[in-house]
Design brief:
The protein is an alpha+beta fold and 336 residues long. The protein is 29% helix and 21% strand. It has 4 domains: 49 residues; 105 residues, no CATH class; 76 residues, no CATH class; 87 residues, no CATH class. The strands form 6 sheets. The protein has a 4-stranded antiparallel sheet with strand order 10-15-14-11, with helices on one face.
């Protein structure tokens, strides 16, 4: 993509000289090659082309992102290659600046309110293509005017100052309301995350949760919600280090000795098989070419399926986030 764009910059520059173009931006639309297999043109890319501004590849900008729930991908996070990154560069300025937060469904989302913590750059549609959302980071980073200059906050290093997104006034308010001077800003963050997972809260404030910003009431049992939020955030962010569920039993349905693990565990199509004409809810077939049956407890399927549909529809619901697909116009292979 970068090589193609830079070649277009060269060709467009030559065209402007030969045609004595005075206002390059007015000629961009009619000049660019609209080939989705080579590039996906955006308004910002067209602006860079008009200004003869090339893109230089930088491997340090290859970072992990949370493309879908519990499904990470590598993204080239760059001001030229990404269109309208909004505040994300202040949240994850470089791969060396750690951060975390929680992503919630946005206004008009195609699913019920959901919150999910992440320690990577979130996709705008993390919960699916028809569901937008917004990300609430624990910190933001402010770029220092001069490298090595004065730093009046907690430094994030590398020419950035880390800014706490929990304000001092909020800390004072929580300590006063809860009559507890030991409450920290981390406690407030995890309390909020824990509260957002309360079924009672989601039902009571379901109207507010459809708005850009929902109310966060102070409850009596502040510390219980804080502890719950802390444990949930750790599980949701560090899920790759969590101990696997021991009730899963993998049962190959065909010869797999010659199949490498990278292919054996690549999800192709998830389905619940039938036994004597009835759905066998204890098993999910998830792989190819011959398939691997994962036998799990029916209670677990029902638990995972909450909010995604009835238990028999679990496989179909998970297809939206777990299956690799090929986008026909571009030829790009990615999660659905």
């Amino acid at each position: 993509m970068i090589d193609f764009f830079n070649s277009q910059v060269d060709d467009f520059g030559a065209y402007c000289i030969d045609s004595k173009v005075v206002r390059p931006r007015e000629h961009v639309d009619g000049f660019i090659e609209l080939n989705p297999k080579k590039i996906s043109w955006s308004r910002s890319l067209q602006g860079y082309l008009a200004n003869s501004e090339k893109i230089q590849f930088d491997s340090s900008r290859m970072v992990r992102c949370m493309y879908r729930p519990f499904a990470k991908q590598i993204v080239y996070f760059d001001s030229h290659a990404n269109h309208e990154r909004s505040q994300l560069p202040r949240v994850f300025p470089t791969s060396e600046h750690a951060n975390f937060g929680f992503y919630v469904t946005g206004v008009g989302a195609a699913m019920k309110f959901t919150a999910l913590a992440a320690g990577n750059i979130p996709d705008l549609s993390e919960f699916g293509g028809q569901t937008n959302g917004q990300f609430f980071p624990r910190y933001t980073y402010r770029e220092l005017a001069v490298e090595g200059g004065f730093d009046f906050g907690e430094s994030g290093g590398g020419g950035y100052e880390r800014v706490d997104n929990i304000t001092d006034s909020a800390l004072v308010d929580y300590r006063k309301t809860c009559t507890d001077p030991t409450i920290t800003k981390d406690d407030i963050f995890y309390y909020t995350y824990g509260l957002l997972h309360s079924l009672e809260y989601c039902e009571l404030f379901k109207a507010d949760l459809k708005k850009p910003l929902s109310r966060i009431p102070r409850v009596r049992d502040f510390h219980s919600f804080t502890e719950a939020g802390r444990k949930l955030a750790d599980l949701h962010i560090n899920y790759e280090q969590a101990e696997p569920y021991k009730g899963l039993v993998e049962t190959p349905t065909g010869e797999i000795s010659a199949t490498p693990p990278s292919e054996l565990y690549r999800v192709a199509k998830m389905k619940i098989p039938k036994t004597k004409g009835q759905p066998d809810r204890s098993t999910i077939i998830y792989s190819k070419p011959d398939g691997v049956g994962v036998r799990v407890a029916e209670q677990l399927i029902k638990c995972i399926g909450e909010g995604l549909g009835a238990a028999p529809d679990l496989a179909l619901a998970h297809n939206d986030i777990a299956v690799f697909d090929t986008d026909e116009p571009t030829g790009v292979h990615s999660h659905k």
